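For practice. Supply one:
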Amino acid sequence: MEEMRFFPAWIVSELPPGMSGLILAGVFAAAISSLDSILAALSQTTVSLLYQPERAKSHAHHRSLMLKSKLWVVIWGVILTAFTLLMRYAKDEMNIPILPLAFGMTAYTMGPLLGMFVVALLGKGSFRGLLIGSLASFLLVVFVRLDVWVLVQRAGGDVSWLSCLPTYLPVPDQTGGGLPVRPALNFVWMWPMTFVLTLVTGLFWPRQRGKAGL
């Protein structure tokens, strides 16, 4: 962590006032640019999923969609802020390393997102099937990675029952205060497995009569 603080400290203490101000302004501008792109993408995706903007015809309908899009920017901002505070709490109070946790989070999303993308490219499939496949993929990753169970144990919960699951192997030595289990499967296998699960459920889940898929 000390290495991460070296560059900002060098900017503030060693560079001339004008130059350090320009560099810090550039850093903040880059951060804001990345953040507003994420919020806009999340907002537009949510609006497209919930409100079907392609059916909007009147000016009043378009105006209503614009207001809903702005509202979802605020909602997603609150959600991401709460998630950031949760990660800060996990780092400071529970002593959980953030970088491995952050990189491991891709196992929850990459497979289902790729499955949805392929189904959309094929132009057929069931929305309900994609939703069920994504939820099943999420639960599968939960029972392969230890992220949730580390939080549960640090909060005082009992996780010893996990040793009964086929996705975990028992750890006999608990002198370090770690979890009583370790994953039986590397989490990188979750990317292809969750992709196939989402793809199959999206393509072959029966559609409701009279309703189109995607």
